[in-house]
Design a protein that fits this description.
Length: about 200
């Protein structure tokens, strides 16, 4: 409960960013079909950390660590702007992600990440003090995406993932990695206004 309360409190602090221009991952839209899309994402850098737990609790566990890094808990005490979304992916393999804040799982571990602003490179970003925070360069990559609103429940996520997988098969696309869960809003945002996505890397 403590971690959930802390997560919510931090997002209340930064929640006003939703009304401002928050930088998002750059991509080119290649195909659109209702709520499904294929996008080509530009290269970018992630700040990433590994946590254990289920789908719904992993983001809250990781947020404190990542938010600390961008808030100045780094070698040069530099503040880094918040971006969107937060991504989460399974962490048993080397993850190829092109979403800003995402989440993936493998063996009960999730890699949760913040995309770094485009003005930074690996060499110009402040170095993390916390060894659990890793900076990683992500190359350009093509993604099949489903966009949806609603709660951050595993049931909602799983249903959307299944629909995206069926759409990928129907369109003859070949997957090249694990699915990514991306969230763009603070937890106090009404469920019907939330922007969520599931992304799958494709050839």
């Amino acid at each position: 409960m403590k971690s959930k309360a802390f997560f919510a409190a931090l997002l209340l602090i930064i929640g006003t960013q939703e009304t401002m221009a928050v930088e998002e991952a750059s991509y080119v839209l290649l195909k659109s079909d209702g709520k499904f899309e294929v996008r080509e994402y530009a290269p970018h850098v992630l700040a990433e950390t590994l946590v254990t737990g289920d789908l719904e609790s992993a983001g809250g566990k990781a947020f404190q660590t990542l938010f600390g890094y961008i808030s100045g808990d780094n070698v040069s005490r530099t503040k880094v702007a918040m971006t969107a979304p937060v991504s989460q992916v399974p962490a048993s393999e080397k993850i190829q992600m092109t979403a800003p804040v995402g989440q993936q799982r493998v063996e009960e571990q999730w890699a949760v990440s913040f995309m770094m602003p485009k003005s930074y490179t690996l060499s110009t970003l402040p170095q993390p003090k916390d060894p659990s925070v890793v900076l990683r360069q992500v190359p350009a990559q093509k993604m099949a995406v489903v966009r949806y609103s609603g709660t951050w429940s595993e049931k909602n996520y799983s249903r959307q993932k299944s629909e995206l997988e069926a759409w990928v098969r129907k369109n003859g696309l070949t997957t090249t990695g694990s699915e990514i869960w991306a969230r763009y809003n603070a937890p106090f945002t009404p469920w019907f206004l939330r922007r969520n996505e599931v992304l799958i890397p494709v050839e």
